[in-house]
């Protein structure tokens, strides 16, 4: 596979700070995605079931 040449320093403080911020956002995204995949929060699920709605 062809390697892309870059001048990005993956060991720099700026890169590490950006990586840390990105990973934090990614974890938040995954958490929200998991909640929506389940059909919402526990409160929402309970409300829908009480109303006889399908999930």
Write a structural description.
The chain is mostly helical and about 55 residues long. It has one domain (about 15-50). About 65% of the residues lie in helices and about 0% in strands. The chain is built from 2 helices and no strands. It has helices at about 15-40, 40-50. About 0% of the residues are buried. The model has no long low-confidence stretch (mean pLDDT about 90).
What is the helix content? 55-70%
The rounded Rg comes to: 20 Å
Overall number of strands? 0
Question: Between the first and last Cα atoms, what is the distance in angstroms?
Answer: 45 Å
| Number of separate structural domains | 1
Mean pLDDT: 91
Strand/helix succession:
HH
- Which structural class should the secondary elements be placed in? mainly alpha
Largest sheet: none
Given the structure, what is the number of helices?
Answer: 2
State which percent range the strand residues make up: under 5%
pLDDT below 50 for ≥5 consecutive residues: which ranges?
none
- Specify the overall morphology: elongated
Protein name: Methylcrotonoyl-CoA carboxylase
